[in-house]
Amino acid sequence: MGIITGVIGHWGWEVEDYLLDVWEAHRTPIILATSSILICVWLYLYFSEEREGLVALPRQYTVETKRTSPFQLSNPLPTTKPKVVGEKATTVGPKRIRGEIPRQTTQKESPKRDGLEIQVLVFYSSLTGKTEKAVKDLVEVSQEEINGAGTGTCRFPDAQILDLSEIDYDEYFINPPKREDGKAVDYFYLLLLPSYNIDTINDTFLEHLKETHNDFRIDSAPLSNLVGYSVFGFGDREGWPTEEDGYGFQAKEVDRWMAKLTGRKRAFPLGLGDLKMDGKARLLEWSSGLIDVLRMFAQTGVLGDGVRGSGDADESDGEYASDEEEDTETSIEGNEKPTKNKGSIDDVEDLGKMVAPSEKAPLAIDFTTYGKSKPVNIQTPQAKEMVPKTSPTYAALTKQGYSIIGSHSGVKICRWTKSALRGRGSCYKYSFYGINSHQCMESTPSLSCSNKCVFCWRHGTNPVGTIWRWQVDPPDLIFSGIKEAHYKKIKMMRGVPGVRAERFQEAMRIRHCALSLVGEPIFYPHINEFVGMLHAERISTFLVCNAQHPDQLAALKPITQLYVSIDAADKESLRRIDRPLHRDFWERFQRCLEILREKRFKQRTVFRLTLVKGFNIDEAVKGYADLVDKALPCFVEIKGVTYCGTSTSSSAGLTMANVPFYAEIQEFVEALNHELNSRGLEYGIAAEHAHSCCALLASARFKKNGKWHTRIDYDRFFDLWEERGPDGDWTPEDYMGEETPEWATWGNGGFDPRDTRVDRKGRKIEV
Ligand SMILES: Cc1cc2nc3c(=O)[nH]c(=O)nc-3n(C[C@H](O)[C@H](O)[C@H](O)COP(=O)(O)O)c2cc1C
Ligand code: SF4
Predict the structure, then answer these.
(1) Per the CB 3.0–4.6 Å rule, which of 246, 357, 713, 719 could disulfide with 737?
(2) What is the chain's alpha carbon radius of gyration, rounded to the nearest angstrom?
(3) Low-confidence ranges of the chain (pLDDT < 50)
(4) Considering the domain boundaries, does residue 332 fall inside one?
(5) What is the pLDDT of residues 370-423, one digit of tens each?
(6) Atom of ligand 2 at shortest distance to CA of 329?
(7) Within this chain, do residues 113 and 256 fall inside the same structural domain, yes or no?
(8) Complex ipTM
(9) CB of residue 294 inside a 6 A radius of ligand 2
(10) Same domain, 393 and 256
(11) Which atom of ligand 1 is the closest one to the Cα of 275?
């Protein structure tokens, strides 16, 4: 044993010496080789190791190629873990705190692939069975249409009806259900329910929607991969006459929570009906709108503008920044002062320096002199576009929400149109003349004007000039263009909270056109043909001109209601306020009054007075009475100016202090009325719209049996137009409408009782 130990000890020393020698001789290569081997081993282990995926957060964007359905869903929002029966719905990790949902700006056609099924699920609740019956009848009659809405690539199988008192909400209202056969299917939810102010299943359902939205463990919009949804509510108008009284209140609530849970996928506005009254008609109207939406989805893969993921919905609640009507609405809506940016231009003449010459020959019209001749065709090669797409004017106008049609026309959805769609009140023209604001289109065939009025908020963005020297677009191009743009904008209101199905459907038929948007409509050389196209489609015309183009005014064929702006009572004030480009502006103005006087038995004529404190009110009553005496208009609309804060108005010395209070307007109206009566002129104060700071004086011609009849019989007007042609041999009395409603008459405020007045934040105001 001792020998062995000795031998090993000896060898050990020898090995050690040997290794030391080797180390001394080859130290560097040994170090390098060892480190290389270690690196290789580490790399091998790193790449071959099976690690857990980083899956704590749900996916934000789906990858298009991974979708199995033929359409990219319009709203690729986070996907959550599908619910397994019996398992509590949870997501991995904490609730994500998200910022504002990014809006998609434009509607894009989605790539199509074959085989998508969209399952329509119809949920209902019913206590006494009326809703249940209505739902079953509806599905029975519309089933074929629903199926027929599909295309080769997108099918709508038979709709399934589900009773909210029988289903498990977790299966449908946390995530859309998965099909057992694993087939790719997307869902479209319809919810129909009555309202009950007593405890019912509706409360349980609403509580579930609310809890789901507020559950910190799951996404606040877990139903965002639904194709879309829409709600219809039944109620009782006798017991609950208005929405404020509780009419259909639970359907409204469901609509609101579904908007949150789906990330605003309201495919069609909320419908409401009373089965004892209009319930069936409202339901059919709602369902036909929905079928259109399904059809569109099948064809394009999107639900249309205004629905989340399909385009921008204008949900501005800041649209009540002012109480004005069309002349000011746009300044409010954008909440932007039309500031002059570096490249902006005031005079259209300036445009000439900026635009490329066009091939088309212009129709030059000289507006600087009058009483001479008809427009002459001048074949000049320098024809320019009034508002070229590349110009700062175009950029400024489109930024303010105008759609520019062709090269010199515009259309814009007025804030009152939006307001009426949401049941928040129509403009004063409803109170006075029966114009439904949600069926009204505001447009102009000429963006150019010949004045630079101090209170015109558009000044600085719209072109001005005295001579038409631009390309002339044909009237049919303008007509089809403005309609298309208007309807497009109405459709964008589809997903906006508060829009009601009934008004939305009505808005898809334009009935009125206010030719007063911006610029001077009679500047357009083909104004008569253009107006004729509107009348041929039974669209009424309210045309406002600036009393600077007597020849064009004289040649204008009868329109439904013809306005002349009367911005001052004397020459000096008119110069100060309107800042006209024409040197002979006062003569032009006077001549227009004479023409208006001649037209007063042919069509309804109106003076529009815009009162500016410190400019054209004080001691002006007599002057205005002289003008009324001269033109004898059928009506005199008097309204207070709205301060728009433009640099133009500020530089003209206009401030908030120049905006009259409604009490001051009332005082003025009474004084003017008194002055007219004292001269033996038979006028009276017929109506008011306090909300717009506006009142109406009317000629006694529009008083029957002691009652004012300021409203218009539009059907009668079109009948006359069709029977007697566009030159119109008729009188305004021939199409005088029904009695002015009591609530609109002087002393009653003029707010439409069907609507709810709200403040800027959408809170109800007691009228
Ligand atoms: C006790 C009771 C409370 C009601 N509350 C409301 C209500 O607050 N608002 C409303 O619009 N309708 C209300 N209604 C009317 C119902 O919504 C309406 O009759 C509906 O058509 C009933 O539908 P159903 O038969 O499917 O249950 C109420 C009806 C009852 C009987
Ligand atoms: S008339 Fe038409 S465009 Fe003018 S404010 Fe009323 S709704 Fe708007």
Answers:
(1) 713
(2) 35
(3) 1-5, 7, 50-113, 308-381, 647, 767
(4) yes
(5) 444 444 444 444 668 888 898 888 888 888 788 999 999 999 998 899 989 988
(6) 5
(7) yes
(8) 0.89
(9) no
(10) no
(11) 21
